[in-house]
Amino acid sequence: MNRFHRSIVSSVLATLIASPSAQAAEFVIGSHDSLTGSTARVGSGMNEGIQLAAEYFNRKYPEHKFKVVTIDDEAQPAKAVAAIEKLTSEGVLAFSAGYGTNIIAPASETAGRTGLVYITSGGVGEGLTHRGLKTFFRITNAPGYARAFVGTLTQAGVKSVSILYSTKESPSTLANDLNTALPATGIKVTLHPYDPSTQDFKPLVNKVKLQDRPDAMLMLGYENDYIAILRAARLLKPELKAIMAPWGIATTDMRKEFPDLVANVYGTTFTPDPPMYRTAEGQEFASLYRDRYKKEPDYLVQFGFVQTELLFEAIMRSYKAGTLKQKNGIADELRKTDRETLVGHVRFDATGDFDQFAYRMGQHQNGKIAIVWPKEYATANMNYPAVPW
Q1: 150: which residues sit within 8 A by CB, 6+ positions away?
Q2: Beta-ladder partners of 339
Q3: Predicted TM-score (pTM) of this structure
Q4: Which of 27, 116, 257, 354 lies 20 to 30 angstroms, CA to CA, from 205?
Q5: 250 vs 92: CA distance, rounded Å
Q6: Residue 26 to residues 54, 64, 83, 308, Cα–Cα distance (Å)
Q7: Over the stretch 228-244, which tens digit does the pLDDT of each residue have?
């Protein structure tokens, strides 16, 4: 090879090395999750999905490195904000994180002030998407939960419900939505708000038993609330035909830890337990999860995985376009999302919300969790009427 040809080859190699598509890059995002504290079961499940997405992308793009740095927020807003500040100072590109509107709101606000994207599936408070933040995205919302409750209750033929709900923002938002949607279908609603610090639910359950006498009791709160309410109900035995709850009840952990308490209880979910995945992506997701965690994934893992998958896809598009370090580079790419995922076909509206989101309803049946609504996704018929005792 003469000097002229060597010069050309050297020039081409230099161009390839300088090109983003030819360089090895490291993409580091941050996360804060409740690995300990009052919502540790939920936070840990979501974090497993978030971490799994990084492994998935490391396999998909072996020339690059994808990494998630997680800080335990202990289910405390101040610690979530501190985590955002620390991870921002360490140079993360974006955040996939959060559980509970009271934690997500200040954490995402902090991220937004520095221009970093924050995506979550753990908060349904209406105010989250009405703050004018161009960097906030979520793939769940209260209307999506309400659709599952209304659909299941009307399919079962329920005529009246009592709703026990925490006065925290997310449960209150869902309670208000249901108090509007259910009467429109002819279902009578009685509301019972409770303070988040409540531990003894016998007085509330006794009101349900003696005064309301409903067909169904809805628990809108968090995992420790559910356990306490179900224990009170098992003791007092109100004449119910169904018990339902949203986030955190239709999980493998609840099934294994409290099998007698959750038997026949309904809960929002996206997959039966044991899970079944029909798509190639779903099967790969489940296989990776089983290999890493030696157990079956549940819907919390799915949500953590999908939100992080969409974020990493946006990061990759921004990287290839050369806009990774530009203001709104990642956010602009995330807004282009339009594809089928493990939690439905995701498109974000102008506020960053997945406005067509709709949950499915599962039920704990015979040591498993079956999908019972909607009919096109059902894996079993409803056990109705049926309660844990």
Answers
A1: 178, 181, 182, 185
A2: 346
A3: 0.84
A4: 257
A5: 33
A6: 11, 6, 21, 16
A7: 999 999 999 999 999 99
